[in-house]
Amino acid sequence: MTNIMKNSEDVNTIGFSIVAYAGDARSDLVDSLKCAKDGKFEEAHRLVVEAEKSINLAHNIQTKMLTKEASGENLTLSFIMAHGQDTLMTTMLLKDQMDTILDLYERVFVLEKKLEVE
Length: 118
Description:
The chain contains 3 helices and no strands.
């Protein structure tokens, strides 16, 4: 097997790993949103913490790859890796927005409860 073929397989494996971890995180974030909508805020926040763990795993894998490339190793870019990067970045953006979204849901929940009492 040539170095190019081995390199391509390694990059694809890394890409699949990033997609898997980022996908798990995205699923947790979407589930968190559903919990918040239903007023289950403790569960919503727990799911965000779980998502953060998966994002960190994906980000660590990405960082190792970037370190290899920065040290002079010529890496082959693949569609799988591009998909992994896209999935990770959009998931990170969603996670960054979750604190605000959960806060807004909690505020609405409190206000609705106050309106029911009055």
